[in-house]
Design the sequence.
DNA sequence: AGCGAAGATACAAACGTTTGTATTTAAAAA
DNA sequence: TTTTTAAATACAAACGTTTGTATCTTCGCT
């Protein structure tokens, strides 16, 4: 393995000059910088990252912590973040928490041991407060939260505009003439779900519809819970459901089908997240799309700007978009 | 940050003893080992991984390189590998190649710079040989290939039993009475697809059916290609398709639907990989399932055993399983 | 020519761990 | 008690980089 000293020797300079040259420091003359970087590639030099990290006190690695990598939202967000981080010389270490706070702590400890430069995190649903996050992050490490955030924690936060997304989605159902619209809401310890609930309520209120707690279902947003909630919603006279997740929407959708209820004629469904499967069902499932790739990009950018001393990124809100598909369209398009 | 020397000082021993104690070396007395590890947790010691990696020449990190993390197969394989690696004190750094050899080289270079202990890789479809892999891996680094492998490269290989999976899938279609069975095959530079093609051909031959190259489609296995191939297959009189991927199966399935052809009565479809969406379509799409979680586990285990000097893991074949669903079942179940 | 100020490079220490070798201590044998 | 052996720990160097400080050039200016 060729080191910085090998290059130094072969050119008759010192390792420090080589180091500075490769880092692009203004302290080394342009001509020598060029000579050094040329022989570096010639000799096949590759930086020893552990050595660099040890000396600098932190690595060129950014940790990304998410509940699961096989959700459309998270894998896209990761891709977005990865792309901009790679462009800036950082590599990425991805950790799954499987929605468990215990695994989240383990992941953060690992990242801490590896002296990562930053952590981009969307916390597990079982994490009820951000205490364990702050405890397992070094003060120099830059923390960026995205999607699911604890607003009491410091640092940049990239979030969906859940309130308005939910509002628009609910409004869309009302516009399509649905009268009794229920909501599969998720658990209220996650801010994102609370915002969606509030958007839903606001949309109803604005259109003069009373909020009925009997048709709001607080449960995990997986297919099975959606199915159950769907059945109950139908029993309670709902003719539409706005779901905080696509898998719960799928459950409700299948429940309606199993009851022999026609979608969208007799029952409207709209989910959230724009998972791939929603587009290929027949009828296709409407969904409130996020922009996960963009959110990942923004999170990475927030990390990069936070690297600079005086920066202060704060909260960034990314819009959501109603993808109206067959499952909620019973009026002819007017355009 | 508390270091090994801090612990040493507080106990009146030397750093080397602490290091050995924490590593569980037999060279330190049991009683001192206990005392050391106790004060270590008491003082909140956390190993500085970069320092450790620098000294040892390699890190406690394993790189996993896959085409995309949002494919059911890969995200499950990653989960499997992650689980067993974490149990053994390794963390995981995940790289996506987006099927591009260029990105694959970048990923390998990054892993090399980080002195990873091992690389688990499923190569990009545009990687035509393993040369660039060998070139960008240090000789001490353990290379494990899984799913898509280059058999000319050394080291453990964990593969699906693609031949028999394809054989069984094709056989299943024949058994269901389909007479003219086409194949969407993928590109032949990936061994997995070649094996599937051969399994398909063998099944036909064994049942006395001639192989017809006109109904074998060599194209990328995405939805769009599947749709096109599906149309052509129908024109050429096929009454069933075995597809090397689920997305191409989906394309063909939609093509048949668009042509007003009934599935499974007039046209049978079976895909490969058991993606989530195949289970929720109506009719549900049959698929030849792999065991990705198991493959990930095996790959990680192969890495761990390769750590031992005299080990020689070789090739491991993991079976596949036909998940017969509505899209290929037109006879009543006989059991 | 002499002086001062940048400009360019050299020097040297440090980051925290691991590990081969040397030394001390304890136990066993004589 | 002395000698031999083994067990336990101490010593010290090394891994490759980065970075503050020191030294040496080079140039422009008077």
Sequence:
């Amino acid at each position: 393995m060729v080191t910085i000293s090998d290059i130094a020797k072969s050119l008759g300079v010192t390792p420090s000059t080589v180091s500075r040259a490769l880092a692009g420091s203004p302290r080394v003359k342009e001509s020598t910088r060029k000579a050094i970087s040329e022989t570096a590639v010639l000799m096949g030099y590759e930086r020893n990252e552990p050595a660099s990290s040890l000396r600098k006190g932190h690595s060129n690695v950014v940790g990304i912590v998410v509940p699961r990598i096989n959700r459309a939202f998270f894998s896209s967000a990761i891709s977005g973040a990865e792309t901009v981080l790679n462009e800036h010389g950082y590599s990425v270490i991805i950790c799954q928490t499987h929605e468990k706070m215990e695994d989240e702590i383990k992941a953060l400890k690992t990242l801490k041991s590896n002296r990562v430069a930053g952590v981009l995190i969307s916390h597990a649903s079982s994490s009820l407060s951000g205490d364990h996050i702050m405890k397992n992050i070094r003060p120099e490490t830059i923390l960026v939260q995205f999607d699911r955030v604890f607003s009491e924690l410091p640092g940049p936060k990239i979030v969906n505009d859940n309130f308005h997304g939910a509002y628009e989605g609910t409004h869309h159902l009302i516009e399509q003439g649905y009268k009794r619209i229920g909501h599969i809401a998720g658990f209220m310890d996650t801010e994102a779900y609370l915002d969606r609930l509030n958007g839903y309520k606001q949309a109803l209120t604005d259109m003069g519809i009373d909020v009925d707690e009997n048709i709001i279902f607080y449960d995990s947003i997986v297919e099975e819970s959606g199915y159950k909630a769907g059945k109950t919603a139908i029993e309670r006279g709902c003719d539409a459901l706005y779901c905080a997740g696509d898998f719960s929407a799928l459950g409700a959708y299948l429940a309606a089908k199993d009851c022999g209820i026609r979608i969208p004629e007799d029952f409207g469904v709209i989910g959230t997240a724009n998972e791939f499967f929603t587009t290929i069902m027949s009828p296709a499932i409407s969904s409130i799309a996020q922009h996960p790739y963009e959110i990942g990009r923004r999170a990475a950018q927030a990390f990069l700007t936070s690297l600079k001393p005086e920066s202060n990124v704060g909260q960034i809100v990314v819009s959501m978009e109603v993808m109206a598909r067959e499952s909620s369209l019973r009026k002819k398009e007017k355009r």
In short: Residues 13-14, 16-17, 20, 27-29, 32, 51, 53-57 of chain A lie near DNA strand C (CB under 10 Å from a C1').
